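Archive entry. Fields below.
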Amino acid sequence: MDSFFIRGNKPLQGQVTISGSKNATLPIMAASLLSSGEVILTGVPNLDDISVMSEVLTTLGAKVTRENDVLIIDGKDVNSCEIPENISRKMRASNLVMGALLARFAQARVAYPGGCAIGTRPMDLHLKGFRSLGYDIREEYGFMEGKADKIGGKEILLDFPSVGATENIMMTASLTHGTTIIRNAAREPEIVDLQNFLNRMGAKIRGAGLDTIKIEGVKHLVGVEHKVIPDRIEAGTFMVAAAITRGDVWIENVVSEHIQPLISKLREIGIEIIPGSSGLRVIGSSQPRPTDIKTMPYPGFPTDMQAQMMAFLATVKGTSIVVETIFENRFMHVQELRRMGANIKVEGRVAIVKGGRLQGASVEATDLRAGAALILAGLFAEGETVVSHIEHIDRGYDSIHEKLQGIGAEINRK
Ligand code: EPZ
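PREDICTED_STRUCTURE:
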């Protein structure tokens, strides 16, 4: 098991290029099952989660080949509708194939996905959506089993704007005859990218990015080529890297409107952000100001940036408040940051952060974004920080230590 070895206290300078979005690629890979044609995805990041989703698709009989950032998926020979537990437990997003399997084969049997450290991650909203579309869904022996019954387009109201449930229902509805309307839909940019991909395949979907999405079911979808959007959370992570080291970094391949909540928060703290046509410049401040963060569904402040921002606020003199409203257990980075001298008190979903100095220490990554937060803290801390269990980080960051080295960070992987 590798670790990252980091020596902090150096302002990062230079240019870094962001990879394609993990959270856009995963649902689009699942959606490729909707067609027996060949799908060519470009701008695909090199991540463990993408490898796991490729394994999920090949388990079903699809052919998946990769050449650099190009992924080719051929769903012609899909011959199974079952995802076994040993695969499904590897990654929560394996649940995203259920909607596509129901739509194309009128049946699916998917083991409950792994919950993960940040929360129980139930599937009730996904299953409510499938049932509304007329699928007979059973939950038994650790599996979710579905088959077509009286299927037809319907109006579905999501109790919570779940990203995954919105994506799963979009996929199923795209091949379900009649009109489906999803109300209180998730509005993330990755939902828009999925809509664009599906419409290119021949689907008729409108409204992604807003809270109501309308889908006219069609009979057939074809294989297409698609370039995935840049990863707004990787971009945000590097923006915080520039801010926490009081550096000056150009971040290439960023869609600024995808990270407006982060841009406005960093500006509140005193960080200078200068957007350009294909990226943005982040200039740290010698006197950053404390602020308050409350995670919300898009277009609110993203929960996937909460840990990284907390690491930064732990270095900003004054008191900041961080409220996590999306996941019930997304403060596991706190105990690790405390080992580095961070002054953070947690009351339920509220963390009170009193900024100050940090010292290097041996810390453990507990989940993907917590691991990223520990790297950021190590870039600021005096002395050496060792981050272990970095397999969590490999799930969602493509060569993060090499990208950081490229802008002057002292970080090695051993
Ligand atoms: C997606 O997860 C992202 N993953 C997560 O990113 C992200 O944190 C999350 O959306 C929220 O933005 C991918 O896109 C692959 P949700 P997802 O359904 O779809 C509850 C990362 O770091 N809920 O929007 O699983 C759920 O428990 C990952 O890249 C139900 O109650 O998230 C949670 O509290 C982490 N019932 C809330 O909704 C359901 O049926 C948000 O979950 C579904 C969800």
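CURATOR_NOTE: The first helix runs from residue 22 to 31.
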